[in-house]
Amino acid sequence: MSGLVRRLGKVGVDTSALFLCDMQEKFRPNIRYFPQIVHVASRMLKAAQILEMPVVVTEQYPKGLGPTVAELGDISGAKKVSKTCFTMCVPDVMEHIRQSAGVKSVILCGIETQACIQRTALDLLEQDFDVHVIADAVSSRSMVDRMYAIERLRQSGAFITTSEGMLLQLLGDAAHPKFREVQKVIMESAPDTGLLSLKSE
């Protein structure tokens, strides 16, 4: 192990950003567990806003695929970027993250797991960011694609976790000054997004 640094995936509010990928109207009928995925992503957005973390929202070809769904929440304070490529790591996004001094970890939610989520994670890993994929906030049209994309991301060095697990790690301590505000988000249980059925397949 000499010369290698073991990456533990520890996160901090001051060193993390939230990426919300392509949760748009035209995807609604086809993505498995779409309402639940958006609900979990909305929880992450609320917490990120409370904790004053950088937030990036992308839309894939919005002219054809529609806007970000309203139920995600208020994204007026986020960096919003339109794209056509299958990654969030477009120049506008990466410049924004570089200007957000100290960001070392990216928390990733959205769709589709085997497409934009996977490519975004790989691009970020290549640029030496820690990547945390929120398993209950990513999905695909196919549960098979979702399952194997999550496994592929784990093999490549991304950390796979849940929304509640991530929020607790970001807080780190019940004495955190924003704990009670974020606790209200945590106390609303995350919906079932099919992860148990993935495990059983």
From TrEMBL:
<dbReference type="InterPro" id="IPR050993">
    <property type="entry name" value="Isochorismatase_domain"/>
</dbReference>
<protein>
    <submittedName>
        <fullName>Isochorismatase domain-containing protein 2-like</fullName>
    </submittedName>
</protein>
<dbReference type="InterPro" id="IPR000868">
    <property type="entry name" value="Isochorismatase-like_dom"/>
</dbReference>
<dbReference type="InterPro" id="IPR036380">
    <property type="entry name" value="Isochorismatase-like_sf"/>
</dbReference>
<comment type="similarity">
    <text>Belongs to the isochorismatase family.</text>
</comment>
<dbReference type="Pfam" id="PF00857">
    <property type="entry name" value="Isochorismatase"/>
</dbReference>
<feature type="domain" description="Isochorismatase-like">
    <location>
        <begin position="16"/>
        <end position="164"/>
    </location>
</feature>
